[in-house]
Write a structure and sequence with these properties.
Blueprint (H helix, E strand, L loop, with lengths): L7 H17 L10 E5 L20 H11 L7 E5 L2 E4 L18 E5 L5 E4 L8 E2 L5 E2 L10 E3 L2 E3 L13 E5 L4 E4 L1 H4 L10
């Protein structure tokens, strides 16, 4: 086979055609990269920018404020990456429309690659002392709580009676919307006769 020979005139014509073709094609839109924020409850600081794992915020509230500062006219999604660790809350975090995405984009709060963030309103109970029979006690003051965890495992709170439940159902009547209990379980309730 003979090699293909292209003359100088052909090369110039192809070059001109390429320039004209490129000028006729519409420019492709530039896609903005997803905006990412990072939160690290151990190594972060709320005075950081939050834009990389090395400059992470410490609290979810700081990330929420940063999202609100940039989400008014979004051109792509916003992702808040929560590093593993415990995020203690002193009150609820409320999210509203001002925390949402705009222009068809979303704001996503997610766990950072393979890590486990724990958002909790739990309070540590300290000052434990031995009571008797292998039991321990600690003052909780006015703390009102429904759940107790010991070393990350849900534990049974002190109660009486110390087994079963306080009120075991003896039966139910769905049609009449009744729950039946043994009379011995409610005999000390004041004014029970008013509810018959």
């Amino acid at each position: 086979m003979r090699p293909l020979r292209i003359g100088a005139g052909t090369v110039k014509a192809l070059a001109v055609a390429a320039v004209v073709f490129a000028a006729v094609l519409p420019a492709q839109p530039a896609y903005a990269a997803t905006t990412s924020f990072y939160v690290d409850p151990v190594g972060g600081s709320d005075s950081n920018s939050g834009t990389s794992p090395a400059t992470a915020f410490r609290t979810i509230q700081a990330a929420k404020a940063a999202v609100r500062a940039v989400n008014a006219n979004m051109s792509d999604d916003i992702v808040v990456n929560l590093r593993g660790g415990i995020y203690p809350l002193t009150g609820p975090i409320s999210f509203g429309t001002s925390d949402s995405g705009t222009n068809g984009h979303t704001v996503v709060y997610q766990a950072y690659n393979g890590e486990t963030p724990v958002v909790t309103g739990g309070k540590a109970i300290t000052g434990w002392s031995a009571a008797a029979n292998g039991e321990y006690k600690a003052s909780v003051g006015s703390l009102n709580f429904r759940q107790l965890y010991v070393n990350g495992v849900r534990a049974t709170r002190a109660r009486y009676p110390d087994l079963g439940t306080d009120f075991q159902l003896d039966g139910s009547d769905k049609t009449n919307k009744l729950l039946k209990m043994l009379s011995s379980q409610v005999s000390n309730w004041d004014h029970l006769s008013r509810w018959k």
